[in-house]
Amino acid sequence: MGTPRDRRTVVRVLGGAAAGGAAVGALGVALAAAFARRVVRWRPHDDERVLAADERMVVLAASLKTRHPGVFGLRYQDGYALVGPVVTEDARTVTRELREVSGRPPGRGGVSWEGDVHALPSDVGPHVDVLIDAPSGPAPAWRFGPAENATWAIHIHGIRSTRDGALRTVPAAEAEGLSSLVVSYRGDGDAAPAPGGASRLGLDEADDVDAAIGFAVERGAERIVLVGWSMGGGIALRLTERSAHRERIAGLVLVGPATDWRAAIRSGAAAGRVPLPGAAARIACAALGHPLLSRLAGMRAPVDLDELDWTRPGRLAVPTLVVHSRADRTVPFDSTERFAAANPGLVEVQEAPAADHSWEYNVAPEWFTETVRAWLRAHVA
């Protein structure tokens, strides 16, 4: 049920009512459950607004996202648009290049600002739709490259994302001769729903991805490279210990990986302007490990955050590339540094130019792809 430190925090939260402060205790419980729910919930988001668009430009409400350097996707009902660099900006608006449109053009209203730079998997190249028989139910996936190949890359997206985002690493794998499987897993909107609509931060989701590894092995895969984005990185790490096929895992490529969920929750609370972010993060961590509060957050069972801490020495056994940026406001770069220090000789860290969470490709696509290719060439391909 989490560490003694987490349990002590729960006792303090729940103890308010027993000590006579019933209102304070109830408020503490509510805050703990609410912030924990925010951490683990899958939820759609139209988080930015289009103000105007023509054939060449799109005007968006100014925000940290819309001002961010790089190339990004806008997803909205019945359409997708690829936007390029900022052309002009002021205190209220940002005008960016409008590079491609799939479906209807963007109109005024809410859009989802995405790291996805491909409207469809066919934009990456020829592929086949396949269905993985996962423990949670049928899980759709895209296969790139020949079905009969000795080395496969399994691309794993993160929380509050979809497999579209993981397409960004497929070109590097294909260029080095690997077949690719871009997978879905419970809760992401493509595979089966997650119980309660909540993630278990990779603990359960890894079982679905393990079924995808089995799919590749059944088709002749002798070596597997796991390519994990954000929470997908934690899933990849868990599979090196728990996969039924772990002896075939030859290496990992991790992008902004969640190697320490306590650190990620603290960082997310600060970036999300949560009131009293340090206290909120401690309470959320405690709630996630508590049998009652975790259920109030929508989880079917509590999580042990120690089990999700990969900065502890002695857990990693395969060569690993980490691509990460110090500008990541969700997963702190410090956790990558501690992960590398805990695994000397196994972890290579490539620091990306200034990019927020999982946008390392978006700010420097050529550098990103060549970095991943070079590592695969040296260690796997």
Automatic annotation (TrEMBL):
It comes from the Bacteria. InterPro entries: AB_hydrolase_fold, FrsA_esterase, Hydrolase_4, TAT_signal. Pfam families: Hydrolase_4. Keywords: Hydrolase. PROSITE patterns: TAT (PS51318). Residues 156-265 form the Serine aminopeptidase S33 domain. Gene3D superfamilies: alpha/beta hydrolase. GO terms for molecular function: carboxylic ester hydrolase activity. Belongs to the AB hydrolase superfamily. This is Alpha/beta hydrolase.
